[in-house]
Amino acid sequence: MQKKDCFYLGKIVKKHSFKGEVVIKLDTDEPYLYENLESVFVDLGNNLIPFFIEKSSLSKSTMFRVKFEDVNTEQDAEAIIRAGVYLPLTLLPELSGNQFYYHEVIGFRVIDSEFGALGIVKSINDTAAQPLFEIDYNGKEVFIPLIDDFIKKVDRQNKTIAVTTPDGLIALYLE
Fold first, then answer.
1. What is the pLDDT of residues 58-71, one digit of tens each?
2. Could you please report the per-residue DSSP string of 59-112?
3. For residue 116, how far is the Cα from the chain centroid?
C-alpha cells in the first residue's frame, strides 16, 4: 500500500500501558466511524506497514486506545510512537453536495462568478489558520480560503468548483 492510496487517520502519540498499548490521536471530526477497525497502516521509515488490532477503545473524543498484535512491551510501543497512521482511501465515507475531501478536489477547475475560470487546484494549504485552495492561474498562484459561503457548487462529474469570492480578492493576485 502506498501513501497516495491512503488517507491520514492520525498519529500515535503515547504509550498507554506496559503491555504495548498505544494512544492514537485521530485527525477526524467523526472518530466514532473508526471504532471497530481491524487493522491500520503505520508509517515506519516511509513504508506503510499493516498493523492488526487486537482491541481498541475510543476515549476523550479523538483519542483512540489500541492494542496491536505483536506489540507486547513498552519497548515495542516506544518504537512506533510519533508514527503516522493511515487507512485506504476506499474506507472514507462518501461525501456529497459541497462537502469534499481535500485530496478529492486536486486537479478540479475553479470558476469564479465574476472572473470566470481561475485555473486548476494544485493543492490545499491547511497549515494556515484557514485552509486555502492553491490555484495555478496562468502561472500565478492564487489562494482562495475554503469558506462555505465562497463555495457555491462542487461538480464531481465535471471536476469543477464554482466559487464567489469577495470583491478585490482575485484582483490582489493579478496586479
1. 987 889 999 999 99
2. ETTTEEEEEETT--SHHHHHTTTT-EEEEEGGGSPPP-TT---GGGGTT-EEEE
3. 28
One-letter amino acid of 57:
S
Contact between 151 and 102 (Cβ < 8 Å): no
How far apart CA 80 and CA 11 sit, in angstroms, is 10
Q: What are phi and psi of 32, to 5 degrees?
A: -60, -20
Domains in the chain with CATH codes: 3-90 (2.40.30.60), 102-174 (2.30.30.240)
Instruction: Give the separation between CA 24 and CA 32, rounded to whole angstroms.
Output: 13
pLDDT tens digits, residue range 100-147? 888 889 999 999 998 899 999 999 988 878 899 999 988 889 999 999
pTM above 0.70, yes or no: no
Sign of CA dihedral 90, 56, 10, 47: negative
